[in-house]
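hey m, so remember when u said the tokens were messed up on ur end? i reran from scratch. heres the input so u can diff it against urs
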Amino acid sequence: MHDTAMDGRAAALSGPCARWPVEQGETIRQIVERAGDKWTVLVIGTLEHGPLRYTDLQRSIAGISQRMLTHTLRQLRRDGLVTRTAYPEVPPRVEYALTDLGATLLDAVTALIDWAGTHHDEICQNRSHFDEAAVTG
């Protein structure tokens, strides 16, 4: 049953939230949160050129802890964005790869990473100016 106040708020939404049916909003916000997470962006971007072992992924992503990489990979597997393949070898070999669905994120992820690199200096300057103004102002 819908609350009429909620329906009124939903009708007043603008921007990207207005594109979704109200009943899908929570799940869509969760998907956006997952896809926009810094570790997700970096894992998806790192898997762009093919499957990698866990240790190769960890070495390729500066600053990610073993715990966070494990958690991120588990969530990406749950969402169907990454596969985990264990090979029956000694020593055991496990590889992670993008699914077809995960590969659909590559353009957005690559654009975001490139944008951050392109605007790094400008954003650092803006932060510095803002912080200085906050101290003096």
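this time it looks ok to me. The two ends are 50 Å apart (CA to CA). if urs says something different then somethings off w ur setup not the seq
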